[in-house]
Amino acid sequence: SDKVLTARDLRVEFGLPGGRTARAVDGVDLDVAPGEIVALAGESGCGKTTLARTLLGLEPATGGRIAFGGTPLGRSGKALKAYRRQVQLVLQDPSGALNPRHTVYEAVAEGLRIHGITDDEPGRVADALARAGLRPPERFFLAYPHELSGGQRQRVVIAGALVLEPSILIADEPVASLDASVRGEILSLLLRLKEDAGLGALVITHDLGLAWSIADRIAIMYLGRIVEQGPVEQVLTAPRHPYTRALVSVLPDSPVPEPIVLAGELPDASRIPGGCRFRPRCQEVASGSALPVLGRCEGEDPGVLGPDGGSHEAACHLVHARMAA
Ligand code: SF4
Prior knowledge:
The chain is α/β, with parallel strands linked by helices. The protein has two domains: 5-215, Rossmann fold, CATH 3.40.50.300; 221-324, no CATH class. 34% of the residues lie in helices and 20% in strands. It has twelve helices and eleven strands. The protein has helices spanning 48-55, 77-86, 104-114, 121-131, 150-162, 180-197, 208-214, 232-237, 242-249, 283-287, 294-299, 317-324; strands at 5-15, 21-32, 37-41, 63-68, 71-72, 87-90, 168-172, 200-205, 217-222, 225-231, 313-314. The strands form two sheets. Strands 6-7-8-3-9-10-11 form a seven-stranded mixed beta sheet, sandwiched between helices. The structure holds iron/sulfur cluster. Residues 242, 276, 278-279, 282, 284-285, 290, 293, 297, 302, 316-318 line the site of iron/sulfur cluster (SF4). One of its GO terms (molecular function) is ATP hydrolysis activity.
């Protein structure tokens, strides 16, 4: 499609006091097309929020390329504005996405005003609210955030993105702080927008259950890299990378028989281990199962997974050796 968001060899590095460099995003290839939901999952600190902010043009990439519909994400104000109409951010409301002093109408119309879209503002606002499931929309125009439920506020935030008729939404933990019942509603809204309106979404989450219930594809991120990717059902029912296996092992009804407790802490992005970045925590190394490939685990980066072409892949020497056997 001509409306695909693409990232190639994306890198975000920044200098730290003391002369060290943090590699928050360390070579990521990613595609998000209209009509599909891609989950980006990993622990906090793995770089997924930095990746999202960079895809939105909120943070500069220090390497690699981002494009929408083949057009590179430009630095000029005009190019960035055109891009931002197509690729919209959905935040969680409790993070302060809604201004408490603005009515619902003002909150949703804000995007139109920023983009200088003046024709039929009330009609566009009403349409966006209705698509976000706030009906009849006019009833919400003059309401303030504090008069709404948590779920309604999250719908207003989504309407504020939909009003620009984007092709892709980037949703950072869209339901993390909502009640279970409301979470289901918001997730089915995202699914309906995908199915009825052909919207694409990148959903950033640490919650694999959420990814399972909503995504078509999943990318598992560890220390700035995607270490496993593929169709969500395959990745979560037959995880291959030791890191994914550990994450999946603690889910209810996990296909991994025993819970796996990872050794140590997630290292700092300025101290990414050489060889395989997961090695210091890898349960296959600790148990001795990785012995036949240990030299490579220590000395050779398993590399970057290319753009997800629909096959199930993991960046791990042991997985590669087992599949070749
Ligand atoms: Fe573990 Fe080696 Fe695979 Fe890295 S490459 S995840 S250290 S088995």
